[in-house]
Amino acid sequence: MAKILLVEDDELVRDMLTQVLQRASHQVIPATNGEEATSLLRTEKPDIMVTDIIMPKKSGITLISEVKNRQPDLEIIAISGGGRLDPTGYLDLSETLGASVSFEKPIDNTALLMAIDLLIHGKRDKAATK
């Protein structure tokens, strides 16, 4: 089980992903935008952050950059439908800035859950060797 900060401005997508993650026994902390996520990160210590890229107030690209500067060990999964542009460019940039994995919307739920499991097991393996 992982504690996951889910940052998604689209209520339907956020609710669907919350249900998928909770069914897989993960604890979900929802945020509607990058500013809210930044505020939550002051008090919450998630294992993973799943963030949309195109959002109002603070984009996922800005959020990823800020989070990686403050919490370099936090695993990040970027998701994007691309808005008016092809999502591939945004997702490539998100990985350059520090996202471990990225997915285009609509998201393959099985692939997302597998990525989370791999990232969590990788963190546990690193902690065990320290």
Write the layout of secondary structure elements.
Elements (H helix, E strand, L loop, with lengths): L2 E5 L3 H13 L3 E5 L2 H7 L7 E5 L7 H11 L4 E6 L6 H11 L3 E4 L4 H21 L1
Parallel strand pairs: 1-2, 1-3, 3-4, 4-5
Helix pairs in contact: 2-3, 3-4
Written account of the structure:
The structure is a single chain. Helices cover 48% and strands 19% of the residues. It has one domain: Rossmann fold (3-Layer(aba) Sandwich), CATH 3.40.50.2300. It is an alpha/beta fold and 130 residues long. Strand 3, helix 3 and strand 4 form a beta-alpha-beta unit. A five-stranded parallel sheet has the order 2-1-3-4-5, with helices on both faces. The protein is globular. It has helices spanning 11-23, 34-40, 60-70, 87-97, 109-129; strands at 3-7, 27-31, 48-52, 75-80, 101-104. The longest helix is centred in the C-terminal third of the chain and has 21 residues, at 109-129. It has five helices and five strands, in the order E-H-E-H-E-H-E-H-E-H. Helix 2 runs parallel beside helix 3 and helix 3 packs parallel to helix 4 (87-97).
